[in-house]
Amino acid sequence: MEGIMVSVATGAMNSLLDKLTALLGKEFRLHNGVKRDIAFLKDELSCINALLEKLANMEVLDLQTKEWRKQVRDMAYDIEDCIDEYMHQPYQQTSSGIIGFFHVYVQKVKELVGHHGVAQQINELKDRIVEAKHRRKRYKLDTEVDPGTNNMFSIDPRLPALYVESSDLVGIDIPRDYLINMLDDGEPLLKVISIVGLGGLGKTTLANEAYKKICWQFDCKAFVSVSQKPDLKKILRVILSQVKNQDCSNTETGDENQLINALRGFLKNKRYFIVIDDVWNTQAWKTIKCALLENTCGSRILVTTRIDTIAKSCCSPHHGTVYELRPLSEADSMSLFYKRIFGSEDQCPINLKDVATEIIKKCGGLPLAIITMASLMATKSDKREEWVTVCNSIGLGLQNYEVEEMERILSLSYNDLPYHLKTCLLYLSMYPEDYEVDMFQLTRRWIAEGFVKVRSGRQLVDEGKCYFNELINRSLIQPISIGLDGQATACRVHDMILDLIVSKAVEENFITPNADPTQTLVSQEKVRRLSIDYRATETVMSQSSLIFSHARSLSIFGYSEKMLSISNFQALRVLDLESSVKLQNCYLQDICHLFQLRYLRIAASSITRLPEQIGELQFLETLDLRRTWIRKLPASIVKLHRLIFLLVNGSQLLNGVGNMQFLEELSGISIYNECTKNSLQELGSLTNLRTLRLTWHISDSRSDRAVYTDILASSLGKLVSSRLHFLRIIRGPGSADIPLDSWSSPPHLLRELYVPGCCFQRIPEWMTSMANLYRLCIRAKQVTQDILHILGGLPSLLDLELRSEAADEPMKMLSFCKSKFQCLKIFRLYGPIMGVMFEVGAVPQLESFSIEIRACQAQSTFADDHPDLGIHHLASLKDLNVWINCGGAKVEEVEVLEAAITHATNLLPNHPTPRFYRDNQEGVVKDGAHVKGGG
To answer: Domain Disease resistance protein winged helix: where (predicted)?
Structure first.
């Protein structure tokens, strides 16, 4: 697996060479003549592959060379397909076939190298290849990670600020304040404002900044993106979820009219603020507008679009205004460019100032172009020659706002990528516009396709994350949901980047996207990777014009009664079905014949079972069923000896799971009363597991529950002493407790321990040695000062959730001193807690705090009846949630506690607004009597 590498530059050549080497091995007993032919083919293709890799670094190729390269890549794919087919069959049925097959292809290689003057062309390319080698050195295109190190790429700490922090945005203040004045003008009638401008000007960023500034003034709010091919039902459902501030996914079966009526009914008497981002056609706007009821409550709608006529159409006749977004000024452009590379203009070397000014001028004030170019230049040294070379390559600039010029700038960053990253970037054109691409799913698909190659001893998954992070660092993809550990868990592709990579992917016949029915597809091409978006109602696949039998990847979004049959795709490595409730189990009946399948993801709640023969997919590495309704897996699953990722949605743990020794992640598995003790013991043998997420349903009423809990605890102890990094256990209602404190070996590698249902009588010794732990959720008999002292010493802890169980134990105040919890950012403290006290300098990084307090007991601990929790010492606090148990307290005491906390937060730099939740209000004491009600 480590040697296989597939890329847009060389096609399947590297993978093919590995398989030719395997055919020459002892396992395949071939005749000497056949071996000589295979050896010749391998040597010849090795030389050709070396040339392909050199050509991949050349920005301009003549037509004849392009045609030669295309033929070689297509041939490599075809040869590999045939080898795969023959190697899959029993040897006695393949010998003659292989002999004939290789004789044909040996001759084809000979003809190709000398055909139509290509040999002469190769000679003519030699001088240019030498020049390309020097150019690669100047541009550092061949730079790789030092093989002597094991450093992983991390996200550039400067980049997220450009997307998230308002203080780091440049040139935003004036247009944002102007836009806010238009929105907040006191007019009671509904008002629609459109922002219009070229892609890459920052329309979405501006809308988001205005939204963040004033959304708190409205009763309800929503921010949604429409895109070119909108799923209007999904958009309406997202708006409904956001304005109601609750999950409305259960309305999935409702039609658009039901969703529109639900929205109109909810918004009738409310002042709302809704941003409709990236509108491309008036019909989509008209449908959405039907749901946004006109009222006299001062509601506002903000629309962004690239098209002037649509901007005007959205505004009329709703007292609206079109705001035309202009490019950045020269001063703001310079500020943005220098901040992205050096931190400030003052830090720019003097020898680069004039070159930088020229680069900025050619970007024409487009923030996207400036950020893209800045990210490119940040990878260069301070040598003036490198900067001049890049500057001279940009072209004539964007003075006339020509999209072609913008594409040239973006192409420059694309061309500067190593070819393995070009491949990974182009692969993102498999996803629809505005799609939120999950990082884990993407890296697994890259691995299944053979795009990721291990370096420096890292695992494939970690290497894939490096690729993902480097694309973020180069501003070619936009990070989403950056976690506490600094890792983005998803990304989006900017429209202009998507346009670029789609055009290049189609040109190279790397991907055939069919999301846009107007796109011209080359009918004579063999499809290598196919993406179909059936959510666009006009999408039509012409089966007669395209050849699918050689396709390696198929992604289907949505559903159609005329969906392509997967039986047409015999060479598939990747199958991703993200469909609706209409997809039927019978559609999957031919999956078991896709013997080369490495990655299978099914995201359709209508799917309830897999074919019984699924175990025949012997190359399968990823099986993702999390968005299905499959509760029972076929018994043959355990025959998938190469499976690395098994992701399910509550499926029962199977007997024989110990056969799956390659498993690194097992998520969503459930352990019910029907589960056998043997399967629990086998779980402990999966010593390659890095992630385990399970739900425990063994009933506490069972007479043999202790046997089950002891076996599970023992198996988990083996896993955490091996390679386990992430462990999550959810206990079902009435389930038996699991004695995790019985572990004997310290779980040194654990980074996440999420076990809210497992009660610790005391903090075990092994927990003090968890130096890598950054997320912890546990339940204790009672949270004490000693527990805080122990956990406060964990050096990497960023997220802590503590739950106290005992309600009848005497409670004390919990004190946080400044020497503990130095890195903690999120803290949730639940249960019968009397109160807390934060000393000066305590928990310096804390951003989010949630706590449950008993009002009557908290009040009695403070002098002069004035509650002081020390919250005003939490300088980094941004979010505060307080659950107040009102039992036994007077209303006045509850109000005093809330007022004191509110006063304390007003003293903080971030001025967080505390959210209060009153529990047990029926227990409030008034005039000596308990008053019922509330709750």
So the answer is: 430-501
- Rounded to an integer, the average pLDDT of 224-250 is 83
Q: Is residue 792 part of a domain?
A: no
In angstroms, the CA 211 to CA 129 distance is: 52
If you ran DSSP here, which 8-state letter would residue 441 be given?
Answer: H
The answer to whether residue 634 is domain-embedded is no
User: b/e map of 702-720 (b: 16 or more CB within 10 Å)?
Assistant: eeebeebbebbbbbbbbbb
384-393 and 118-139 helices, crossing angle to 10° = 130
Any idea what the CATH number is for the domain that residue 240 is in? 3.40.50.300
* In a shared domain, residues 384 and 493: no
E strands, 608-652, where? 622-624, 645-647
Asked if the peptide bond before residue 517 counts as cis, ω within 30 degrees of 0, the response is no
Is 303 within 8 Å of 314 (Cβ atoms)? yes
Nearest to 738, CA basis, from 727, 726, 749: 727
884: three-class secondary structure by DSSP? strand
Extended beta strands in 697-745, E state: 726-731
CA distance 47 to 171: 53
Provide the residue type at 629 as one letter: W
Residues 6+ apart with CB under 8 A from 624: 441, 444, 599, 600, 601, 602, 603, 645, 647
Q: Mean pLDDT lowest for which of 406-415, 465-474, 648-657?
A: 406-415
- Please name the residue that has the structure tokens 């970037």: 425
Tokens of 707: 């046997």
DSSP assignment string, 446-465: HHHHT-----TT--HHHHHH
The number of domains in the chain is 5
Question: Which residue in this structure is represented by tokens 């990974």?
Answer: 424
pLDDT per residue as tens digits for the range 432-443 = 888 899 999 999
Global pTM? 0.79
Which tokens sit at 885?
């148990």
Which of 406, 430, 463 finishes a domain? Answer: 406
Q: Can you tell me the distance from the alpha carbon of 691 to that of 756, in angstroms, rounded to the nearest whole number?
A: 17
Beta-bridged to residue 813, according to DSSP, are 835
On whether residue 817 sits in a domain, the answer given is: yes
Strand, helix or coil for residue 489: strand
Residues 317 and 347 in one domain: no
> Alpha helices of 382-515 — where are they, by DSSP H?
384-393, 403-415, 419-427, 439-449, 460-473, 495-507
Has residue 735 been placed in a domain?
no
Name the band, by pLDDT with cuts 50, 70 and 90, for residue 144: very low
Give the 3-state secondary structure percentages of the chain, helix then strand then coil, rounded to 5: 40, 15, 40
Strand order in the sheet with 478-482: 437-438, 488-492, 478-482
Q: Cα(513)–Cα(444) distance, rounded to whole angstroms?
A: 20
Pairing of β 553-557 and β 574-578: parallel
Residue 335 belongs to domain spanning: 329-406
Are residue 217 and residue 241 in the same domain, yes or no?
yes
Both 278 and 334 in one domain: the answer is no
623 Cβ partners below 8 Å, 6+ apart?
A: 600, 637, 640, 643, 645, 646, 647, 648
Length of the chain: 935
Return the DSSP state at 12: T
Residues 668-697 have pLDDT tens digits of 999 998 889 999 999 999 999 999 999 999
